[in-house]
Amino acid sequence: MKIKPLNTHNLGTGFLYFYVHFVTEVACFFALFRYVEDPPAMWLLFFAYDMLAFIPQGIFGYVCDRFKKVSLGIAGLVLLAAALLLEQLGNVTFLSMVILCIGNAFTHVDGAEVTLRTSNGSLSHSAIFVAGGSFGVVTGQLLASAGAPYWIVYFLIAIAVPFVILGHMYLGKDPGEDRASCRAFRYSNPNVGKALIVVLSVAVVVVRGYMAYGIPISWKKTTLQSIILFTFMGVGKALGGVLADVFGVKKVALSSILVALPFLLLGDRHMFVSLIGVMFFSMTMAVTLAVLVSVLPNAPGLAFGFTTIGLFLGTVPVFFFKITSLAANCIMLSVLTAVCVVCFAVSIRKDEIG
Amino acid sequence: MNIFNTVNSAIFQYVKTPFFALVAIFAIVVVLTVVFAVREIKNDTK
To answer: Does the beta-carbon distance from B17 to A94 stay under 8 Å?
Structure first.
C-alpha cells in the first residue's frame, strides 16, 4: 500500500488552536458545572448550552468567510472571560451562559477558519485543532468539581491570546492564497450532487453525535477512567486527520467506522477494548469536515458550522429519551454504523493514494 | 406533548425564556445557514 508523506507545512496552526480549543472547553465546562449542581437543571442547562453554542456557528462562520478581515478568536476569548466574571461577581447565570456560548462559538469558528485556510488541503491541521476540545471538557469538569479558583481559568484564557495572534500570522497576506488552500480539499465524490454530499455529511455527524451517547461504557466509574476516555477520544480525533492524510480519506473513514464497531460492542465491561473502539470511532470527525469543505471551498466557516449543527441535532434525542437495554443499544450502534458506511461510501471520492 | 410542557415550564423557571420561541429562533438560524450554503454551491457551480 502506498502512503503519502504528511504535509507539515503550517501544521503549527493545528497545535496553536489545539490549545485555544482546549481553553475554550475548559472555560465552558468549568462555568457549566459551577452554574448548577442539581441534575434536572443540569439537563436543561446542557440542552440550552448545546443549542446556543452549536447552532449559530454556521452564520458566524459565513460572516468570517465573506469578510476575511473579521477575526473572532480574540473576541471569543474576551467573551469567555467576561462570562466567567459575570458569574463570579454578579451571579447572573442566564446572561453569563449566553455570553459564554457566543464566546465558545467565536473561538471554534476562528480555529476552523485558520486551520482550514492554512492547511492546503490537509486534514491534520483541523483534526489537531478539534482534538483539543476533548481534553478541555474533562479538565473543565475536574477543575469545577475540585472547586478550583476562577483565576486559574482566567490565566489559561490569557495564555491563549498570543496563540490566536500567532495563528493568524500563518494566514497568507494575499486572500487568493487562502482560497487556494481550501480549494485543495478535493475529497467529495464528483459524481454526486454537492447538495446531496452536504446532506450525507451532516447525516453522518448527526448519527455519530447520537451514537456517541449510546456507546456502552459501564466500566467508566472513576475520575481517572473519565480522563482516560476523553484522552482516547482526543487522540482518535487527531489521529483520524493524520492517518487520512497519509493513507487516504476514504480508506480511513470506512475502516475506522467498521473497526470501531466490534470494539464498542464488546467493550461494555472491558475498558481497553472499549477505548480502542472509542479511538477509532472518533477518527471520522476531521473527515466529515474535509468533505464539507470540498463542496464549500469558498466558505470553510460555513462548512464547519454544518458539522456543529449536525452535532447538536445528534444530541437532541439524548435529552428526551435514552435506550437502557444493552442489546437494543448494540443493535442501534450496528444499524447506525451501516448508515454511516453508506453515507461515506457515496459522498467520498476514491482515494488517489495507493 | 407532556415532555414539551415540562421542558417549557422548566425553562420558564430557570432561564425565564419561552422554550418554543428559542427553538423557533434557532430553526430560523438553521434555515439561514442552509440558504447560505445553497447560494455558495450555486455560485461555485457557475
So the answer is: yes
Contact A1, A103 (CB under 8 A): no
Would an 8 Å CB–CB cutoff place B31 in contact with chain A? no
**A56 to chain B, minimum CA–CA distance in Å?**
7
Distances (CA, A) of A18 to A115, A148, A350: 10, 23, 30
Using the predicted structure, report yes or no on whether residue A70 has a pLDDT greater than 90: no
A210-237 pLDDT, tens digit per residue, is 888 778 788 888 889 889 999 999 999 9
Residue in B11, B16, B36 closest to A44 by CB? B11
pLDDT at position B1 is 46
Q: CA-to-CA distance for A129 and A73, rounded, in angstroms? A: 13
Please give the tally of structural domains in chain A.
2
Its domain, for residue A150, covers 8-185
**What tens digit of pLDDT does each residue of A236-290 get?**
999 999 999 999 999 999 999 999 999 988 888 888 999 999 999 999 888 999 9
Whether residue A141 sits in one domain with residue A31: yes
Partner-chain residue, chosen from A94, A297, A298, that has the shortest CB–CB distance to B15: A94
Q: Are A256 and A283 in contact (CB under 8 A)?
A: yes
> Which of A269, A259, A173, A187 lies closest to A220, judged by CA?
A269
Residue A328 contacts B, CB cutoff 8 Å: no
- Judging contacts by C-beta atoms under 8 Å, the chain B residues touching residue A59 are 29, 32-33, 36
Distance (Å, whole) CA A119 – CA A186? 13
Q: Which of A166, A185, A204 is the last residue of a domain?
A: A185
How far apart are the CA of A59 and the nearest CA of chain B, in angstroms? 6
- Judgement on whether residues A70 and A170 belong to the same structural domain of the protein: yes
Domain ranges of chain B: 2-45
- In single-letter form, the type of residue at position A187 comes to Y
Of the three residues A163, A185, A207, the one that is the final residue of a domain is A185
Task: Please name the residue that has the C-alpha cell 459524481.
Answer: A191
Residues of B in contact with A306 (CB under 8 A): 33, 37
